[in-house]
Fold each of these.
Amino acid sequence: MNTAVEESVQDIGNDVALDALFHPSTIAVAGVSSKSVGQGNSFIRRLRRAGYKGNIYPIHPHETVLEGLPAYRGLADTPEPIDYAFIAIPAEGVPGLLAGANGRVKFAQVMSSGFGEGGRGQALQEALVDALRIGRMRLLGPNCLGVYSPSAGISFVEGQMTQAGSVGVFSQSGGLSVDIINHGAHRGLRFSGVVSLGNCLDIGPCELLEHYLSDTDTHVIGAYLETVEEGRRFFEALRAANARKPVVILKGGCTAQGQRAAASHTGSLAGNDRIWKALASQTGSLLVDSLEDFIDTLAAFQSWDPTQAPFSGRVVLFGNGGGASVLASDALGRLDIELPAITSETVQTLKELGVPPGASLDNPLDFPANILNRDGGRLPEQVLEAVVRAEAPDIVLLHLNLPVVLPYRDGGLMDELMSMVLRLDAAMQQGTRLFLVLRSTGQAAYEPKRQECAQMAMKAGIPTFLDLSAAARALGSLKKHGKFLRNRGFLGQEQAIGGTFSSRS
């Protein structure tokens, strides 16, 4: 962004709370057509399907009725002021439309591109900034998809909305915003909000971070970032928050060619990789390297009770497949996750349960499928109940290898093991959580059952992973965050949920 444009953006001011962006009572929509299904038409239809309760006002220079609603010539002509204006018209028409709002719009979200991406459209960018000042509004975008808010019934993706939850996300990629919602919903994530930021000409990562840090409905924060113009402000917000809410960052543009791609994408250069590593180390935020790890880590933190003491790293690993348990033990060990030995007293209790030779009575507890099948599948449940009661681990990481388990009793053993998983999770003692890994080969013969079991577990709030390595990386982030909190004397995170962080700290 050039200096003149940057100064003009600062003149707009940023003292408007973002609540109306996530829960608008009135929405204006520009880009609605009477002849085809444009982006505006699709947006209105999604609002209706998602159950949006506020008033919707289509904006069109000529039409009087669109999508069954009265249409208005401009943003200043609607019967009441507008909280959120969705703008999806050609870029050349956007500045004039916004300049004519006459102070009656709080937030405009511009979906249109052509405002400086890749070094093109600088004049339009400057005209857009002037229009914001004249029209007296805040801007989300341009070149962005907008806001996904399940509690308000606002969405930029097709399909059924997820239930509202505690994960707040902002992303500088519209495409990844869609992926995060779709992939995350499939993995059991429940969002307080997801925001596609686009070019960040006005509202940017710092304000979204500050909003989520102070939002009592958000307990976990995720961000996909390519660049942060106000690096000091971003750092200070994280440092003031003291990691009371986990912040998971997926950073794009960490290599020279990634930075080149980011410059083409948003028109800005990404920061140095070493700077981001230093920021994470000093603030307790978590850096991840892939979208898959981003989703896995958010799922792990979503399940962690924010009033509970930070994760100390004590895990009991239970499952079938000896070599897999050994490799998982290595993966956990490299991430400073402890598999403490089972005490002799607990081992004696397990022997009294009748655990036969062939099963390991140490940690990891490795039970071949034929032993899991003993007593109609009841034995593993008794073992885990005894171990959790005596050893009180932070997490029980349970892994099941479907290609091995499914042939037993035509899938009957797998059904019983999943029932066991649900019962154990519901009865888990305070301070212990159950994480599940459903291992498979991806072959069609096993995938439907794996999907069925995964959905069952995630519906119950159990974090569920595709493989042990992914689970280990998520636990590594939990451990890193817990270590940061413990080093600062935080035994729980109750204050974060109370919203003690000030968005203007």
Amino acid sequence: MSDAPRTSQQPSTPDSHADIPATRLQEVTAELTARWPETRMEPSLVRIEALMDILGQPQRSYPAIHITGTNGKTSTARMIEQLLRHFELRTGRYTSPHVESVTERISLDGEPIDDDLFVHTWHDIKPYVEMVDAAQPVALSFFEIVTAMAYAAFADAPVDVAVVEVGLGGRWDATNVIDGTVAAITPISLDHTHLLGDTTAKIAGEKSGIVKKGALAVVAQQPLDAAEVILRRAVEVDAVVAREGMEFGVVHRDIALGGQLLTLRGISGHEYTDVFIPLHGAHQAQNAALALAAVEGFFGVGAAREQPLDADKVRAAFSGVSSPGRLEVIRSSPTIVLDAAHNPAGARATAEAIGESFGFTRLVGVVSTSGDKDSAGLLEALEPVLSEIVVTQNSTQRATSVDELAETAVEIFGADRVQVEPRLDDAIDAAVTLAEEVGELGGSGVLITGSIITVGEARILLSPR
């Protein structure tokens, strides 16, 4: 950052923030969330570009891998970060939404920034945010500000590379003021259709906006209409494209204890064997292939660099990957699994992975969705793997009302398989009771799903701390 104030893991001098009150993280979070929510999007980069200008363009001080798609973005980002760190690069990772704490969105070297640094970063840029607000008809949104905080924190660290997940869409997303040398696109499906379009082609038009001139686009398998749009964008900006199933992909996959064992083919054509990832589901193997291709591309493998990556470092990186709230087992007896599936495509992947990786004889669902999502499609995808469902409501205003969700659930599951508990804690207790009924011990489980918010609140309730 050229003229902007600096932040760091530790204040540069003992009194560098002496003029800042000892503001609690909760107060800063409340101040930020009082602004436009991240689910509201105006198709403009004017405000965030103005803020980046006044901060001295921090996002241009490091290379970046930019990630978009419908499902799998956060898991892919975490995999990319792990790979880069095992090749001794200092990383900054920006993902959204968070599971438990807003600080999770901004990570340095694989760990969320601490509360103090988050607070200090906000106070560092706040005067400049107010300047932009004063000059614009609409104030900066929550997501725009946290994006700016991430880019500033990465510049001040400083990082060697940023791994940046798009918040919503791509072309008009606040993160798109960064120019990724690599753009990774996870599978695209219908979601946020009221904002991005009602076909996968239209959605791909928005998401492919992160592919910049001369970049490498690594693209997961896509619906045909979406793939055509992405390829057309690549031609327009003279980008190179690597496609799953063509230039890279999953060669072989075996279920293993606690995860899966993979053989991945990179864009170099080299096959990386015996790659263990402690995550469940074919979709996570697909994410791993995409992450590996993105990192190979970042290092120039398959282009200027002829040699593949060090296979031992690749294996070590993937073996340490985690993705909280993604088929995460948080308790046993009965097994309680958290999964952040929030649309039909995500729920189908979850159902397939549950059937493949867990030996449940009885699985009870605890479900709360967001009101702007396809709740019926999500429930239909989960119905084959759930014995019963407990319908509930998380604490946010975005949540689908419990009565509305219950009505939809009864239509899909039948009244005898649906229980209603308005409070999430009561819903979890009810599901555990159902799972523990006589004759089902040892093969019973509970799946808590429907939204990242629901999973985050359940994680707080169920964590041992």
